[in-house]
Amino acid sequence: MLGKFFKKPDAERNDRVPPGQYLTNGFPVLTYGRTPDMASFVWRFKVWGLAKEKVFSWDDFVATPKSQFTADFHCVTRWSKLDVQWTGIRVTDFLKLVEIDPKAKHVLAHCYGGYTTNIAFEDFAREENFFAYELFGEPLPTEHGGPMRLVVPHLYAWKSAKWINGLEFTEQEQLGFWEVNGYHRRGEPFAEERYSGI
Ligand SMILES: Nc1nc2c(c(=O)[nH]1)N[C@H]1C(S)=C(S)[C@@H](COP(=O)(O)O)O[C@H]1N2
Ligand SMILES: [Mo]
């Protein structure tokens, strides 16, 4: 049954597929709980904590020049999808718009619906991370996190927060939803950082 949907990685692709992962051609939707009814929200994005508090409207947010990104996507439940095409805003470009206290060492991403996930500042402020609002050239579908999600390609996909609506900067690490529930605090797929082992 599984073999119908998930195939073992091709030999030439092995180096892109982390250990214990299987390739899928589809794009499964993985959401804990209900998908928030985004139509009922006026989208806003807030930055706070060890950063000067600032609230962005949709227009403020997307005023940052957009770029295209192709990235592999690895879910800790063992499926990986290669070459996902996104359009969005580079995290490093966005960070130029906010004043962050140098004491900030961690970021907690907040989402409509209440999901959170933690990312160390050095993992967050990397060139290849972005806020995405298009998927394969179409507006990002709600089930995949539309209108806006975070994408952090070098960590397991639970760090790629869907329906993102804010960033809280802190000195001490505050664990997010899955991290409190036993997932690894960092989640690097090539090191198989799946669970915290506590
Ligand atoms: N807000 C929110 N973001 C989330 C999740 C979630 O449940 N809620 N699930 C995470 C997990 S476990 C994965 S694998 C990816 C799945 O993204 P997809 O549904 O677009 O495939 O989103 C991540 N971001
Ligand atoms: Mo996941």
UniProtKB/TrEMBL annotation:
Cited InterPro entries: OxRdtase_Mopterin-bd_dom (IPR000572), OxRdtase_Mopterin-bd_sf (IPR036374)
Pfam families named among the record's database cross-references: Oxidored_molyb
CDD domains: arch_bact_SO_family_Moco
Limits of the Oxidoreductase molybdopterin-binding domain: 34-178
Signal peptide range in chain numbering: none
Molecular function terms, GO-annotated: oxidoreductase activity
Protein name (database record): Gll4270 protein
Species per Swiss-Prot/TrEMBL record: Gloeobacter violaceus (strain ATCC 29082 / PCC 7421)
